[in-house]
């Protein structure tokens, strides 16, 4: 079938196959070996379509990073009822963000493998995904935290440390069951982590009493 005869559904299905192949090739071969030819073979398409639909490998990785396959999108973190979540107090929004973030990463074992590979090798392609995550972080802060992070910069640092800590624990959970007394391979262990984050949020976002006059 010629390109002009393809329906939008045909193109969309092909794009989805190509995007799916990106993660498979990354997990299997790592960033050093990934290329248009390998992705095209995995997707079962002519590599010309990758250039036609995405522009090239960096643009393809950017599209993959933004697709939600690699990293939870903001709408996923907002849950099934975004308006209700955004109307909640800051502490509840912050706790819910981490609950959804943890669940989102745990549901993406391929992402954990790719994060592990990133630790060992950094290049122009890993930089594309890093840029996507930085943009994600800015959007998450704007949508979920509101004025709190701007008014209290220390909360931004604590949030960053927790985001990094969640990723680190998931990386360690690839090989070990217990870390610091926590069951990092079990649902129960992660439920305990989420409960502790929620309890911490109440204290972190409590409004301090005004100083005495």
From TrEMBL:
Name under which the protein is recorded: TetR/AcrR family transcriptional regulator
Matches recorded under Pfam families: TetR_N (PF00440)
Residues annotated as domain HTH tetR-type: 12-72
The organism of origin for this protein: Pseudaquabacterium terrae
DNA-binding region: 35-54
Keyword annotations: DNA-binding, Transcription, Transcription regulation
Lineage: Bacteria, Pseudomonadati, Pseudomonadota, Betaproteobacteria, Burkholderiales
InterPro entries noted in UniProt: Homeodomain-like_sf, HTH-type_TetR-like_transc_reg, HTH_TetR
UniProt key word Transcription regulation: yes
Top-level taxonomic group: Bacteria
């Amino acid at each position: 079938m010629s390109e002009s005869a393809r329906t939008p559904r045909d193109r969309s299905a092909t794009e989805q196959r190509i995007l799916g192949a990106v993660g498979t090739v990354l997990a299997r071969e790592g960033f050093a070996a990934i290329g248009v030819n390998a992705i095209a073979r995995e997707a079962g398409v002519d590599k010309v379509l990758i250039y036609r639909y995405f522009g090239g490998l960096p643009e393809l990785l950017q599209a993959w990073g933004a697709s939600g396959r690699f990293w939870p999108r903001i709408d996923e973190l907002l849950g099934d009822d975004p308006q209700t979540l955004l109307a909640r107090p800051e502490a509840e929004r912050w706790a819910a963000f981490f609950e959804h973030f943890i669940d989102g990463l745990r549901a993406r074992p391929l992402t954990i493998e790719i994060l592990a590979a990133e630790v060992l090798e950094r290049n122009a392609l890993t930089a594309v995904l890093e840029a996507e995550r930085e943009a994600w972080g800015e959007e998450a802060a704007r949508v979920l935290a509101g004025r709190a992070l701007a008014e209290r910069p220390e909360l931004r640092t604590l949030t960053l440390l927790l985001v990094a800590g969640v990723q680190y624990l998931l990386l360690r959970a690839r090989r070990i069951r217990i870390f610091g007394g926590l069951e990092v391979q079990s649902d129960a262990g992660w439920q305990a982590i989420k409960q502790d984050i929620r309890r911490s949020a109440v204290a972190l976002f409590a409004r301090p009493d005004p100083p005495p006059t």
